[in-house]
Amino acid sequence: MTKYVINGVDGHFGSAAAALALESVAPEDLILTSWDVEAIRHWEDKGVTVRQADYDDLAMTTAAFEGANVVLLISTMKVGPVRQQQHQNAIDAAVAAGASRIVYTSYLGAGDPDASWYTLTDHRYTEKAIRESGLTWNFMRDSQYQQAITQMQAAAAIQTGFWYTNSEPGKISMVHRDDCVRSAVALLLGKGEPDTAYDITGPELVSFRECYELVVELSGAAIEFVEITDEQMYDMFHAMGVPRWATDDFSASPFPWCSEDMVTNGSGMRTGGMAVLSDAVERLTGRAPISVRDAMKADSAGWPAAPTR
């Protein structure tokens, strides 16, 4: 029987992928990994094999992947050279362990030579390494998660009364994380064509102004939409303690991402690079992707109350 590895099962994406895979895969054919193995130990109660895989440790990761035929490589958080080496170790471990196929969660624009947002450096590096590894592959080039806007941005705008952006008038096909999970598991289990990349997007192109208008509509909050330049966005993040580069000190940062990542993501949207619309979610999963409005409605229950101003 085919054996599957899902990594990062201590996180939202990995745990959701594991739960969904178990609906189709026998527990004995599933290997779940995390750098924090105790955080995923409860999966053993379902008959699943649980192993520690720290991508900074090639030997450990190779042992964790032992016996696997297919690996779902969920990209790690540390943007920059550290992430590139972690991904390289995971790829090398998959090869050394005898796997034949890998599914990788990449990012929208990785296949576009004109796209230049910061995070693409890591994803292009990883895609190239996978192509050169000899493994059969699928790349999921995920658009931005809807939750970044329907949860984090919406809550911040309601609390502060301001929505700052450097992305206008650009549009993006944001995708719900659940649709990404369903697409990942479909590819892991053999759906799709070999050696093929898929743009994983939502069902429509939206601007952040449209998202802002939805938040105002659903929350009743008084929010001002403020368009700012890239430099003003850098200054704003600097004042918040967000480092410019991924290799800088994050100890005082409220975000796990550097400002170069977030600002260039916005500028890439502004210049039209993220206006990509795909039907891959429905083709892979048999279900239409979740719309931004539906995600907003679902997530609005968790928004803070609109303050009196």
UniProtKB/TrEMBL annotation:
Gene3D superfamilies recorded: NAD(P)-binding Rossmann-like Domain, UDP-galactose 4-epimerase, domain 1
SUPFAM superfamilies xrefs: NAD(P)-binding Rossmann-fold domains
Top-level taxon in the UniProt lineage: Bacteria
One Pfam family cited in the UniProt record for this chain: NAD_binding_10
InterPro entries the UniProt entry points to: Ergot_Alk_Oxidoreductase, NAD(P)-bd_dom, NAD(P)-bd_dom_sf
Domain NAD(P)-binding stretches: 10-148
Listed name of the protein: NAD(P)-dependent oxidoreductase
Organism: Cellulomonas soli
